[in-house]
């Protein structure tokens, strides 16, 4: 806290206390203002500047009982391989069209002796071409048969089951529209006004909106099977973000709803990402979504997950990325950017833990668990000792105080990643999974109805899981829309699960 610029009278303790409280509040507001300005105009990276990474002189600590431990001691940094600059080669799986270029016949004589030249090889240069989307009409011709003798018993060939019976939309068109919105972030009104209109067809946004709702209903059996597999996973990552639904029963038009995401730790390469719409952020939502789950549940520090964390068989796990972010914010909010202290010290301990993880990220679970027990636990023990001492020295309302208290309150959940080798330090899987929805939300802004929000959740689940399994989402959706209406058994539906499909 800064000193008062004006001398205060010694005989008025109430005035002194009042001025000191004002100065303390002003310092907190200035700290938050600096952080907000950095978020608005500064770099978004959480890395500290290079000249601060090795400095740990805690100037604010007047009488340390013992020297601070150096969290950077005995750090083994993985070898860095600089990537070569230049153009990347074109994918080998793309089709090639050979266009041959030859010299003129009158140039095929040697300029030295006049003899005829013969071909000695060729030089191939590749360019990338694209064929613009074409739209066409599929004519379903059904042959009819009748009896010439009695002119009764006319039989007509059946039309194959369609994703939307009676609609003009084929599986290919539905997949194209869904991919454009849920993968490319192109709102339906832009598809209507620009893409489809440019291709020469007039399809109203109300029609494509209805198609997406019907597609969301169509794929529900697939979503149900994916949820069954999700609940069998030993570790699930969860996160949530806001969304807006205009015509939501019992809520104002501008009130916030939420999209929840759950990501299963892959088992037998079954990568699963599920989105779910809910009108609230209540703790009852994850209780319902994860009913029957037994295992580790990794989330951020939101209290809405506390209820499910108390269920028998569910073990709550914290996120080190959130703990690290709070120390980074404390650094960005401090007045003197060149001053190093507790914020840098806490960040350096966490960096040390991440460096250990970086060295074992390709190791099998048993090896990861062994290294964590041998190397990470001692660092965590030193961090705990430093945290206990720092909690007594830092005001809790400052950015650094909030970082320390978050670390303290989440401690038991944060250190659980050392229990098993398949656990992760942070919840980045869920945060990365929900990012495509956040990016798309900036384009289409809202859903008109709860049916539309639920359909969006189902279709986001399919395309994001397909991408995680290495599939091209448009081709996968076309396969689903084509064969799911014809499925006659659970086995037929299981064949359409993303991990049962082969990449094209």
Automatic annotation (TrEMBL):
Transmembrane segments: none annotated. Residues 90-109 have a biased composition (Basic and acidic residues). Residues 461-499 form the Transposase IS66 C-terminal domain. Residues 107-151 form the Transposase IS66 zinc-finger binding domain. Residues 43-112 are annotated as: Disordered. This is Transposase. Residues 43-55 have a biased composition (Polar residues). Residues 29-96 form the Transposase TnpC homeodomain domain. Residues 167-454 form the Transposase IS66 central domain. Residues 57-73 have a biased composition (Acidic residues).
């Amino acid at each position: 806290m800064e000193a008062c610029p004006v001398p205060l009278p010694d005989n008025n303790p109430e005035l002194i206390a009042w001025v000191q409280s004002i100065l303390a509040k002003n310092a907190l507001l200035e700290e938050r203002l600096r952080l907000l300005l950095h978020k608005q105009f500064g770099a978004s990276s959480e890395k500290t500047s290079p000249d601060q990474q090795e400095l740990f002189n805690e100037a604010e600590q007047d009488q340390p009982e013992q020297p601070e431990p150096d969290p950077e001691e005995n750090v083994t940094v993985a070898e860095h391989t600089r990537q070569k600059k230049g153009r990347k080669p074109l994918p080998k799986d793309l089709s090639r069209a050979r266009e041959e270029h030859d010299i003129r016949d009158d140039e095929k004589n040697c300029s030295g002796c006049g003899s005829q030249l013969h071909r000695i090889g060729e030089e191939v240069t590749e360019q990338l071409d694209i064929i613009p989307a074409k739209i066409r009409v599929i004519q379903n011709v059904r042959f009819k048969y009748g009896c010439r003798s009695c002119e009764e018993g006319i039989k007509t060939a059946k039309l194959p089951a369609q994703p939307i019976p009676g609609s003009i939309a084929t599986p290919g068109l539905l997949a194209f529209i869904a991919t454009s919105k849920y993968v490319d972030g192109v709102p339906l009104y832009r598809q209507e006004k620009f893409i489809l209109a440019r291709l020469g067809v007039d399809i109203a946004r109300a029609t494509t909106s209805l198609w997406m709702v019907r597609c969301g209903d169509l794929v529900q059996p697939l979503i149900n099977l994916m949820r069954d597999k999700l609940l069998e996973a030993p570790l699930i990552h969860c996160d949530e973000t806001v969304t807006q639904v205009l015509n939501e029963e019992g809520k104002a038009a501008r009130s916030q709803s939420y999209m929840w995401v759950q990501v299963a730790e892959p088992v037998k390469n079954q990568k699963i990402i599920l989105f779910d719409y809910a009108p609230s952020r209540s703790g009852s939502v994850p209780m319902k979504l994860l009913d029957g789950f037994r295992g580790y549940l990794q989330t951020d520090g939101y209290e809405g997950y506390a209820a499910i964390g108390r269920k028998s068989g569910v073990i709550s796990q914290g996120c080190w990325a959130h703990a690290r972010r709070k120390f980074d914010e404390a650094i960005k909010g401090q007045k003197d950017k060149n001053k190093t202290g507790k914020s840098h010290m806490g960040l350096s301990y966490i960096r040390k833990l991440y460096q250990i993880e970086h060295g074992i990220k390709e190791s099998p679970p048993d090896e990861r668990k062994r290294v964590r027990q041998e190397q990470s636990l001692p660092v965590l023990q030193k961090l705990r000792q430093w945290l206990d001492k720092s909690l007594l020295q830092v005001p809790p309302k400052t950015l650094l105080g909030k970082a320390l208290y978050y670390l303290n309150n989440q401690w038991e959940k944060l250190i659980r990643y050392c229990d098993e080798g398949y656990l992760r330090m942070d919840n980045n899987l869920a945060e990365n999974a929900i990012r495509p929805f956040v990016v798309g939300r900036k384009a289409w802004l809202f859903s008109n109805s709860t049916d539309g929000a639920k359909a969006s959740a189902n279709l986001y689940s399919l395309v994001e899981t397909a991408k995680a399994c290495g599939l091209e989402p448009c081709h996968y959706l076309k396969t689903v829309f084509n064969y799911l209406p014809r499925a006659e058994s659970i086995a037929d539906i299981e064949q359409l699960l993303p991990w049962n499909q082969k990449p094209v």
